[in-house]
Amino acid sequence: MARPSLIELEAVLAIVRHGSFRAAALDLGLSTTALSHAVGKLERQLGVRLLNRTTRSVSLTDAGRSFVEQVGPALGAIQGAMDTARAQQETPSGTLRINAFPTGAREILAPLILAFLRRHPRVHIDLVTEGRLVDVVAAGFDLGLRGADLVPADTIALPLGPPRRFAVAASPAHLDRHGLPRLPQDLLAHPCIRVRLPNGALYRWRFEKAGQDVQIDVQGPITLDEASLSRLAALDGVGIGYFMEPDIREDLAAGRLVQVLQDWTPALPPLCLYYPSRRHASAAFQAFIAMARDFATKRADQPGTRLGSASARSPAASQRRSPT
């Protein structure tokens, strides 16, 4: 059996509300003939008369009165939900879910995400960080954040900055005791902070120079699976650590850590936001993308930086070599 449409339900409620077909038709923007046809169609679908009508008046039947009492609140809830959806299209509000790997999340949290929340206080951001690569659509996320080489080909990618780099670093006191490594192989004689990947495997530190690719299975007194813990261990002088450069940038600038083997740490693809095509994106989503583009432009304009020049690598290779 065919289901009644919203306009047919609204027709009956409008007639009851106004007490006449003419006033109800004006309210709904219909002709009186179209309104009468809508009511007649609904009554045929239900198999019961809802309205008693003459040339002078209109009133509810008993069945019509029971119908309106039940349908009225439900239709009001539907209209309220539609108004809420329209409001989210006009004013940034609601929730945006973002999936990111931890280092990338740390890099954009303050300058992009927190700045966005200050500008749009009616928006809630649900940021989930994890090392594994997920299907953002299947997992219910609005956006993903990964290196450009891990962005799915069927999504839209927005580069957020210049190519990134790894950084090998230790405290000044540690290097005073053990000396400076000149080549990656020298690390085999140094205490190092080992890295465990999300899949449980130990990460082999990767280096590259002049086409020479070297992977070192370092040894040391501790194995950690979180970059912030590795940073604390390095600051305490436990050993040499292998980091994403943004995670220790302030420590390097302040002299708390000293970077080594700079000429052996290759560039990585730039950080990217990515998302499926959104034909009817919410106002919150559109505002976040606009602010992300502005953020990327400002980073590109900083001296000595440029967007997206790193060579792409296969996702499998990137996951094998990334410690964060």
TrEMBL record:
Residues 4-61 form the HTH lysR-type domain. Residues 309-324 have a biased composition (Low complexity). Residues 300-324 are annotated as: Disordered. Transmembrane segments: none annotated. Keywords: DNA-binding, Transcription, Transcription regulation. PROSITE patterns: HTH_LYSR. Belongs to the LysR transcriptional regulatory family. PANTHER family: HTH-TYPE TRANSCRIPTIONAL ACTIVATOR TTDR-RELATED, HTH-TYPE TRANSCRIPTIONAL REGULATOR. This is LysR family transcriptional regulator. It comes from Falsiroseomonas tokyonensis.
